[in-house]
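Quarterly update from the structural biology core.
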Amino acid sequence: MSGYAQNVNRIMGLTEFHTTCYGCTFALSQRRTTDGPEALLRTLGSVLLALQVLDDAGAAPAAHSGDLIALIANASPVAWAVLVVLLLFSIASWAVIFYKFWVFQRIERQSAAFIDVFRRSTKFSEVQAVCKSLGDSPLVGMFQAGYAELTAQLKPAPGAPPAAAGARPTLRSMAALDRALLRASSIELNKLEHRVTFLATTASITPFIGLLGTVWGIMTSFQGIAAQGSSDLAVVAPGIAEALIATALGLFAAIPAVYFYNHFTTKVKLYASEMDDFAMEFLNISERNFT
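Predicted structure, tokenized:
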């Protein structure tokens, strides 16, 4: 029977005992009035004993938490090194997660504003004017690269005869413009993937670091058995507990890293698709107006 169940049975027994004493005292009070103080003392004693049992039952979880803290404090240097490394990986990965959330929210907001301006404007120069305020959007980087290539091609070459009045400037190479947009897209993708790979590193390394702590804790347990000549729980428990703590902390660092790495990778793929669509739209506009 568990300690909690024993405590409950004791309280129920005390309650029944108190009820019986109270009934007997009430029955005898008509014949012996001197029993009143004695019954009162018995009732108070029962209540105090029940409160003591409840206090003992409530103190058990606090003792267990204190044992866990003491176990970590008294861990071996190797176990401490494993726990510190795992904790640093966990803190760094959560910092990357919050940072990328903040960055991607700014990207989504500024990209939506830029696309709205791009599609409402009649001149590329009007779009260029708002690029400084929307610099976090990868579409802005692509537009500036395409606009620079477009301007360079439309500028008359040195020594070329002046164009006739009213003549429309023409692009010399659509392929060069396409390559400029493709290069800008690669640069922006690298920016989007910045620090996301750290989450993949955390997800792949931390379980093995935790496994190292697990193996070391089991080795410590076997060493304790050999030194004490006994496989008693008090000898085995500290090493096994260290092993389980290292395993749990390794999983605590790896699981969020895996989840958010997949989440951010999916986001980057969506942004890459948006950049491809924007590049085709930019090329179509350039072809209609400058060829």
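Residues 3-73 form one domain.
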